[in-house]
Amino acid sequence: MLTGVPPTVDSDTALQVYLLGTVDFEAVARLQRRLHFEISGQRDQAILLLCEHPPVITVGRQGSRAHLFCGPEELRSRRWQVRWVNRGGGCLLHAPGQLAAYPLLPLDRLGWSLPLYLNRLHEVVLRLLDDFGVEGGCRPEWSGVWAGARLLAAVGVAVHDWVSYYGAWINVCPDLELFRLVRWGDATQPSMTSLVRERKGGLRPALARARLLEHFRDVLGFSRVSLFTEHPALDGQVRRCRAAGAAPASGRR
């Protein structure tokens, strides 16, 4: 899918990567708003947030209530909230075992159009799948990366003032039974899949995260990376334990 070679990012711009734990979606959404504001005023920054979320459903610009196969009572019993967001893409369940990647990048300063950026983001995920022997592809009618007819990684971004936010969500080893209640695209699509299911073997999420970071650096042309394990704006909102209502993920170590 990659067309051409991306120019190397200016050496003055280091990619700041925050390796977070399990963080509430709302906390990360607030952090993204803060970082977006900062980058809009100081465009020599580039940031990537990597984390997981306790169960929550987000509905993007191409999503609708028709893609939710659970009613209000079931949502309350599971303690799942539904959030309407302004990213591209459809309806998505976030859960432990799903790796969330949120790049906040000044696309104009980097010289990237939105189609080019989306192309690179999909390529990052495709290379990750290839690392673990999983054949992936893209579909013209819906964003994301698919393993056959099943969605393995959702991609949905937003851009304001030429600064990107939101990003990609890769199913490493979540409980796939949960995803039967939500559809990314139209209601005829099969359920989602995961790296563990497709490769038919266990996989450490930390290894998938490390490989994703390597590909993000290489595909988007960053020569320098600075790593952090927390952000002061989160103020202790990182969760170290599995959230209530999330079933153990098969194959997770």
β-strand percent reads 25-35%
- Helix proportion: 25-40%
Low-pLDDT regions:
240-253
Order of helices and strands: EHEEHEEEHHEEEEHHEE
In the CATH hierarchy, the architecture is 2-Layer Sandwich
Question: What is the arithmetic mean of pLDDT?
Answer: 88
Q: What is the CATH topology descriptor? A: BirA Bifunctional Protein, domain 2
Overview of this structure, please?
This protein is an alpha+beta fold. The chain has one domain: Bira Bifunctional Protein, Domain 2 (BirA Bifunctional Protein, domain 2). 26% of the residues lie in helices and 27% in strands. It is built from 6 helices and 12 strands. It has helices at residues 25-41, 72-78, 107-110, 114-131, 195-199, 205-220, and strands spanning 15-23, 46-52, 56-59, 82-84, 91-94, 98-104, 137-139, 142-147, 150-160, 163-171, 225-228, 238-239. The strands form 2 sheets. Strands 1, 2, 6, 7, 8, 9, 10, 11 and 12 form a 9-stranded mixed β-sheet that branches. It has a 3-stranded mixed β-sheet with strand order 4-3-5, with no helix packed on it.
